[in-house]
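Lecture notes, unit on binding sites. The following record was shown on slide 14. It pairs a sequence with arginine.
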Amino acid sequence: MSGCPSCPARSPRGHGGVAAEDDTVPCGTPVHRRVVGGSGAQEGQWPWTVSVAFRGRHVCGGALIAPAWVLTAAHCFPPENPLPEYRVTLGVLQLLSPPPDAQVRGVASVARHPAYGGDDIAGDLALARLDPPASPSRLVRPVCVPAAGVTFDPGMNCTVTGWGHVRTAVPLPPPKALQQLEVPLLSRRHCRCLYALGTGTGTGTELGTPAGDTLCAGLPRGQRDACQGDSGGPLTCRLAGTWHLAGVVSWGDACGLPGRPGVYTAVSPHLPWILSLVPELAPRRPPPDAVPGVPNVPEGVPEGPCEWRELPPGWPRPLSPGPGGDTDTDTGVAPGGARALRLAALAAALLWVLG
Ligand code: ARG
């Protein structure tokens, strides 16, 4: 196996997303490479996608980036939730019937990104340290964290995986099999423009505007999106045959609505923070087809601004109440824990919207 192009070929301590104790485990390389029809994933296809549970209930996804570290969303770990009540499950496909070799871990510590907690939902990232670290196996492998300078450009097709709702307010039915969905990346300009449509301001600075460190994915007309319970989960893109973590599910306005693409925290801008906590990931080289300045997307992809005619007739309707439009009242996990009160005040409007 050739391994991760962003990882050094060999190093004594297993850099670049390769297991520190075992440099024979490459990052970003699933056991099963087959692309399947439908949206149910295959065993070993997304071996870095993990389930984060609080008090025994799945609340979020996450991505294994090193044996001891899962990258997820900051809003999955509100400070008031006691860490000892979290569990991370790795190597599972059907949440309700995990295989005997699935790995369940506690969370020794969690680091929320310092930028998280402001009004714009920037820095919605957290690094959870597993206790004990995961053991790389057939079903458990890290994803590659992008090398410095790697960009994920608009039009690129990437895949989001998770156990979240299948539609707004519709939980994934038993046996709760991991879902995968291919979604095209949108430029931030295009995405902000879409979120501003129908809000009356068009300035792109109001509440509900994707922050500067986000990536958007989906179609202007909606339909393809992550949803509640997918938060923290990985948006991965294939570069030179290897899967890289481009983003982490953060928020959206309900799920799959026209003009309201899924918003993800982009990983690349936060590499320095990630490397400061997980130094074993450095150094790394960018994959040859993704060095800065070399486009890795088809030509002719709209760079924004957006247009009303991209949306079906009648859309967009007014923006759901702020980014809390996707507040998951089921799990108690909402984007921006610090805004919990304001979100609660909007809950009635939200219920109407979800209804
Ligand atoms: N905040 C949600 C969660 O806690 C994730 C929402 C993503 N929503 C979307 N429409 N893309 O699971």
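Take-home: The first helix runs from residue 188 to 196.
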